[in-house]
């Protein structure tokens, strides 16, 4: 069992001199910023947020926190957790500067810092959690958070395997939690409008969807990764999680640092899962297939970066192809080809050919998709209303499943039939063996039956 360590306020302050010498700013003692006023709820009335994984993506999301109308009045960050506690202090420093006040202003906020997220989930101060861990370490904390009665914001790619993703959906439903997946293009006006155009038939009969051919991840043995000195205070065994531990190497720990865990198969689905989760989520939304998926997947080779073609029951083909370049569409976008023309969707913008397609007025009876203009705020609003968010766990799982199917087809090296209802490859034991992976003791998913 990975070791558990809670950093109490007193213990943390006792280490302050050493931490300050290392350039790490500290949280503060007096909670003056959390006192109640008539126009602002007190600390005990606000939603308490716990943050699990305080690395690169957590820092990127500070802008989302700063722009939400709920922080710090209606909700507050109360706890953070990371296997490298240095990262917790660095994150809190930036959070304090950018979200709670200008640089150098002491807000009086205080936080609990945990090395092991399971202790964070035990905290009664935490009502909801944000998961910005690597994908090999996302399913278990999501499920345990649901069991602990916490709502969840789970970054993408949602899962490492299809079975993990389905277990996450089951836990959210069983424990009646609100779970937003970090496919934030659903909360972007132009992406929503583009999906509405496709759904309302502006392109005529849809023929195909084209995306860039994102490369998948590669085996650990493909890279030269010698052992390096383990940084102080980093629980590397816990970071390895469900996978068999390997010697520490900073090129594994850092996301994109040649190769970074993002490109290693035991931890990730590579760019196919990373960029693909964004693009394919919008493809699914535009096709109206959020609760299902393709029925066939065909790789054009057995390399980690081979092109892949999917077929839906409607006959529409979805192609990951090298014929589509960055000049045609972004890595997070897609090209929809219909009998009346094309729609090219990027992140935050789209265009149609001919342009007249996008200029046609919308009819009163046209379908309108779920409107959200701020992804993180939508999650917070849904926690209060108990409604499903715009990027609900089911749609996030289905988009990520398509990424998994592409990689599995490449590994097997042949065309595969897929049953999206049962989520199996019919009568294909070899392919079905890739739907889950062995998980080492202490990191197995709990039984949800």
Question: What would you note in describing this structure?
Answer:
This protein has helices spanning 9-14, 16-21, 56-60, 62-67, 85-100, 117-121, 139-147, 162-174, 189-199, 236-240, 250-253, 270-287, 356-359, 375-385, 393-412, 429-432, and strands at residues 6-7, 47-52, 75-81, 112-114, 128-131, 151-154, 179-181, 206-212, 296-300, 307-311, 317-321, 334-338, 341-345, 350-353, 416-417. The strands form 2 sheets. The chain has an 8-stranded mixed sheet with strand order 14-13-12-8-11-10-9-15. Strands 1-4-3-2-5-6-7 form a 7-stranded mixed sheet, with helices on both faces. The longest helix has 20 residues, at 393-412. By secondary structure, it is an alpha/beta fold. The chain is globular.
User: Tell me about the biggest sheet?
Assistant: 8 strands, mixed
Assembly level: single chain
Strand content: 5-15%
State the distance separating the first and last CA atoms.
24 Å
Spatial strand sequence of the major β-sheet: 14-13-12-8-11-10-9-15
Total of helices: 16
- Describe the global form: globular
Kindly provide the radius of gyration, computed on alpha-carbon positions and rounded to a whole number of angstroms. Answer: 22 Å
The low-confidence runs, each spanning 5 or more residues with pLDDT under 50, are 1-42
Output the structural class: alpha/beta
Mean pLDDT: 90
**Total number of beta strands:** 15
Helix content: 25-40%
């Amino acid at each position: 069992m990975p070791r558990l360590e809670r950093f109490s306020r007193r213990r943390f302050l006792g280490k302050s001199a050493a931490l300050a010498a290392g350039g790490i700013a500290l949280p503060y003692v007096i909670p003056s910023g959390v006192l109640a006023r008539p126009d602002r709820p007190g600390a005990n009335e606000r939603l308490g947020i716990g943050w699990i994984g305080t690395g690169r993506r957590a820092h990127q999301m500070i802008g989302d926190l700063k722009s939400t109308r709920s922080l710090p009045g209606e909700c507050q960050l109360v706890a953070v957790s990371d296997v490298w506690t240095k990262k917790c202090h660095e994150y809190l420093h930036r959070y304090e500067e950018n979200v709670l006040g200008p640089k150098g202003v002491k807000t009086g906020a205080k936080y609990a810092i945990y090395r092991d997220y399971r202790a964070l989930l035990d905290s009664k101060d935490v009502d909801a959690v944000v998961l910005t861990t690597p994908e090999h370490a996302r399913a278990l904390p999501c499920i345990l958070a649901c069991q602990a009665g916490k709502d969840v914001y789970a970054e993408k790619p949602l899962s490492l395997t299809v079975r993990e993703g389905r277990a996450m959906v089951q836990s959210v439903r069983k424990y009646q939690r609100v779970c937003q997946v970090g496919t934030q293009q659903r909360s972007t006006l132009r992406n929503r409008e583009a999906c509405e155009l496709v759904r309302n038939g502006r392109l005529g009969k849809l023929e195909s969807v084209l995306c860039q051919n994102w490369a998948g991840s590669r085996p650990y043995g493909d890279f030269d990764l010698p052992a390096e000195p383990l940084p102080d205070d980093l629980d590397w065994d816990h970071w390895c999680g469900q996978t068999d531990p390997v010697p520490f190497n900073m090129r594994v720990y850092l996301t994109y640092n040649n190769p970074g865990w993002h490109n290693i198969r035991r931890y990730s689905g590579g760019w196919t899962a990373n960029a693909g989760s964004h693009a394919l989520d919008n493809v699914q939304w535009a096709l109206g297939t959020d609760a299902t998926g393709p029925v066939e997947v065909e790789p054009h080779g057995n390399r980690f970066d081979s092109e892949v073609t999917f077929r839906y029951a409607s006959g529409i083909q979805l192609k990951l192809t090298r014929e589509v370049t960055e000049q045609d569409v972004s890595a997070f976008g897609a090209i929809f080809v219909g009998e009346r023309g094309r729609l090219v969707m990027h992140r935050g913008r789209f265009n149609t050919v001919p342009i007249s397609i996008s200029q046609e007025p919308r009819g009163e009876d046209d379908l309108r998709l779920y409107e959200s203009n701020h992804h993180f705020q939508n999650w917070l609003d849904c926690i209060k209303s108990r409604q499903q968010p715009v990027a609900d766990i089911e749609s996030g799982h289905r988009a990520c499943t398509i990424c998994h199917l592409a990689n599995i087809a490449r590994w097997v090296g042949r065309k595969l039939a897929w049953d999206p209802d049962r989520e199996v490859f019919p009568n294909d034991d070899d392919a079905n063996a890739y739907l889950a992976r062995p998980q080492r003791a202490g990191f197995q998913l709990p039984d949800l039956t």
